[in-house]
Amino acid sequence: MTADVWLPYREDELEGLPEGLVPWFWDGQDAYPADPADCALYVVPYLRPGSVAVRPMPEMTSLKVVQTLSAGIDHIETGLASLPGGVQVCNARGVHDASTAELTLALILAQLRGIPDFARAQERGEWLGGFRPALADRTVLIVGYGAIGSAVEDRLVPFDVARVVRVARSARATARGPVHPLSELPGLLPEADVVVLLTPLTEATRGLVDAKFLAGMKDGALLVNVSRGPVVDTEALLAEVRTGRLRAALDVTDPEPLPPGHPLWTAPGVLISPHVGGPTSAFAPRAKRLLVDQLSRFADGRPLRNVMLTTGP
């Protein structure tokens, strides 16, 4: 087959591209590399605003596949209605597992062991001792147990945690133990010392972590959000951390980017990283392997991986 494909990598950066495809480099520039109407497979530029990512979509009348390089597809949702029917929308499952799991562990350890306090004390030239909680012997609850959740558990095990509790949209069994459905979450929250959010942003998960959810967490628990900012009700979280009852480590926020002067910046017990779970040195090799595999499947007419939805009708 011969088909135009738009890629955020140049042809010489992708080893093993299948024959028959016509690759065009586009990473969000104002000018398009070719006529969008001829594009059959569109790889969404990574770390570009949603407004940039969806801009060519209304003109992509021959489109068959949209491939994101993120674990979620929420940033392109506004463009999906403009696509023709039958377009497969794929995410980058597996690409961000290592990077996001590393950051999750870093945020947990930083908050438990008081690393932000030490950094501030160093700036003051102060030797800040004291007793700090360990990750060992803690119960960690993972909400949104998919590929990244499994990678987080891989990294938790060597730290001698007491227990990992897994929650996903529906119940299932894994080699490590059961995955509980979301409906059982209220009964599981009081057991957890650390709650890690890894859910995609959907209508079901928007505002999932509200005042009731937070009230169900045990005193002194740590909330870690590495999913999407709107999964957490920001005002409800602020109310809890201001009392000192809960702490938080947030790689994502609502709003995002967090504007100067927002109360989350100075809220007690809150550590913020600027949505950096995915962009590390581990990203590019995994992203390129995924793209070459998907392009080969597309060229050969084989089923694609990671299909999240197909546009209708």
Overview of this protein structure:
This protein is an alpha/beta fold. Helices cover 27% and strands 19% of the residues. It contains 9 helices and 14 strands. It has helices spanning 50-54, 77-80, 97-113, 115-124, 147-156, 185-188, 211-215, 234-243, 283-300, and strands at residues 3-7, 21-25, 39-43, 65-67, 88-90, 139-143, 163-168, 172-174, 177-181, 194-197, 222-225, 247-250, 270-272, 307-310. The protein has an 8-stranded mixed sheet with strand order 8-9-7-6-10-11-12-13, sandwiched between helices. Strand 11, helix 8 (234-243) and strand 12 form a beta-alpha-beta unit. Helix 3 (97-113) crosses helix 5 (147-156). The chain is elongated. It starts with a strand and ends with a strand. The relative contact order is 0.15. The model has no long low-confidence stretch (mean pLDDT 96).
Brief account:
27% of the residues lie in helices and 19% in strands. It has 313 residues and is an alpha/beta fold. It has an 8-stranded mixed beta sheet with strand order 8-9-7-6-10-11-12-13, with helices on both faces. A 6-stranded mixed beta sheet has the order 2-1-3-4-5-14, covered by helices on one side.
Beta strand count: 14
Beta-strand residue fraction: 15-25%
Mean pLDDT: 96
Q: Number of helical runs?
A: 9
Order of helices and strands: EEEHEHEHHEHEEEHEHEHEEHE
How would you classify the quaternary structure? Answer: single chain
Structural class: alpha/beta
How far is it from the N-terminal to the C-terminal residue, by CA? Answer: 25 Å
**Largest sheet, spatial ordering of strands:** 8-9-7-6-10-11-12-13
Overall shape: it is elongated
| Low-confidence segments | none
Helix percent reads 25-40%
